[in-house]
Design goal:
Number of strands: 6
Number of helices: 18
Bound molecules: acetyl coenzyme *A
Number of domains: 3
CATH superfamily of the largest domain: Citrate Synthase, domain 1
Order of helices and strands: EEEHEEEHHHHHHHHHHHHHHHHH
């Protein structure tokens, strides 16, 4: 692009190129800023800083648009499967029938865990948070597949192995939490159905067959979580990957980043908040008042990027309603969530700050209805986000301009001073 931005500093003006994206979003390319001016930029929380260009996901936060490789999230949620969407994100295009069959076969082939790894589950206390298990088990995959230590984006086996085994590890960690033996995958089942089987079959329920409506809901949930450009966990994957650490190490770090309540942990925090409101008598107006008084936070609301609505939340709300009807369940938490949304969306505090339900506001309700316990919610998020993390890792590794991620800082500590032996310190 011909346009340039000019920075005037002292008596000198510096010109910096403008980089333009597919939808005319623009960024100032400051790569030579420090060399040219001695200055760095300071942007805590990366509110304005683009870490990379990317072909994977487009978000327009003002208009509530989310595209994976150009395809609207609404279309994928309605027509695609999680495995097909994963292929799209990782490889760039929707697969042909043959490509999809090969990818699915590969996922099926890698569904088992090494038996030694299965014994790891015996070492965790039963009350261990499944995210702690997930991140350490994923990192441990590097020990069992040492060729993965060499980051190689053309090694498709690593990718299928990771996606497939993450699902098995997630389900095993749930069985562990329940104090039950783990359930092995059934290879005739498709990805989501196989996950539900590993979660909910057990020796006393050997004939469990996943309800197709639950399988569809799970596909949708995972599709909606599959990528969200440069968020906290994806940026972590890219940062760790930029040091040439293995794919499994980078993804394990991403899982840890996702865990926090301001990111993927919010779905757990939402249900805990709704339960608190229910236990306190279900008074949403009082709760909202406390949020405005800064005594509490409305979890599942607000987003760094979406400032109008989160399209994923809209789809999930409809799905929650549909699934509750299908299973003929009444969930008081769903009623409280809807009332909270209504009260908040008509309140100037939330309107002025552009705070709307995000993906986590209704996802927990759906997981609950599916029988998935609260502690597992963030694991479900990780299961959905895995293709996005892999796609970003591949994109970064393929980028000839990529350098190790290493932000700068403005030092504000003590200036140089001399060491004082301990006996001489006051
Ligand atoms: N409840 C109450 N007030 C809020 C909320 C909320 N959920 N979110 C933002 N605000 C207020 C802030 O207090 C701030 O008000 P102020 O300017 O008067 O101080 C203003 O809105 C701007 O909020 P920030 O925290 O500056 O926004 P930021 O972009 O840094 O944070 C975040 C975004 C972390 C998502 C925030 O909205 C939040 O904490 N939400 C609740 C947690 C949550 O749902 N996280 C999941 C996000 S989606 C995801 O990661 C998958």
């Amino acid at each position: 692009m011909d346009k340039k931005a000019t920075l005037k500093y002292g008596d000198t003006s510096y010109e910096m190129p403008i980089v333009q994206g597919s939808y005319e979003e623009r960024g100032v390319d400051i790569r030579s800023l420090r060399k040219d001016t001695g200055l760095i930029t300071l942007d805590s929380g990366f509110m304005n800083t683009g870490a990379t260009t990317s072909d994977i996901t487009f978000i327009n936060g003002e208009e509530g648009i989310l595209l994976y490789r150009g395809y609207p999230i609404e279309q994928l949620a309605e027509h695609s499967t999680f495995v097909e969407t994963a292929y799209l994100l990782i490889y760039g295009d929707l697969p042909t029938e043959t490509e999809l069959a090969a990818f699915s076969r590969s996922l099926t082939y890698h569904s088992m865990l090494h038996e030694d790894m299965r014994h790891f589950f015996d070492g965790y206390p039963w009350q261990a948070h499944p995210m702690a298990i997930l991140s350490s088990m994923v990192c441990s995959l590097s020990a069992y597949y040492p060729d993965s230590l060499e980051p190689d984006i053309h090694n498709h086996e690593h990718i299928a192995r990771l996606m497939s085994k993450l699902r098995t590890i997630a389900a095993f960690s749930y069985q562990k939490m329940q104090g039950r033996p783990v359930v092995y995958p059934r290879n005739e089942l498709k990805y989501c159905a196989n996950f539900l089987h590993m979660m909910f079959s057990h020796p006393a329920e050997p004939t469990y067959e996943p309800d197709p409506e639950l399988v569809r809901a799970l596909n949708t949930l995972l599709i909606l979580h599959a990528d969200h450009e440069q968020n906290c966990s994806t940026s972590t994957v890219r940062l760790v990957g930029s040091s040439q650490a293995s794919l499994y190490a980078a993804i394990s770090a991403g899982i840890c980043a996702l865990w926090g309540p301001l990111h993927g942990g919010a779905n757990q925090a939402v249900i805990e908040m709704l339960e608190e409101i229910r236990d306190e008598g279900g008074d949403c107006s009082t709760f909202i008042r406390q949020v405005k008084d800064r005594q509490r936070r409305l979890m599942g609301f607000g987003h760094r990027v979406y400032k109008n609505f989160d399209p994923r939340a809209t789809i999930l709300k409809t799905y929650a309603d549909r699934l509750l009807k299908h299973l003929a369940i009444e969930d008081p938490l769903f009623d409280i969530a809807q009332e909270l949304e209504e009260v908040a969306l008509s309140d100037p505090f939330f309107i002025e700050r552009n705070l709307y339900p995000n993906v986590d506001f209704y996802s927990g309700i759906l997981y609950r209805v599916m029988g998935i316990p609260t502690k597992m919610f963030t694991v479900m998020f990780a299961l959905g986000r895995i293709p996005g993390w892999i796609a970003h890792w591949r994109e970064m590794m393929e980028d000839p301009d990529v350098r190790i991620g290493r932000p700068r800082q403005i030092y504000t500590g003590a200036t140089k001073r001399d060491y004082v032996p301990v006996n001489d310190r006051g």
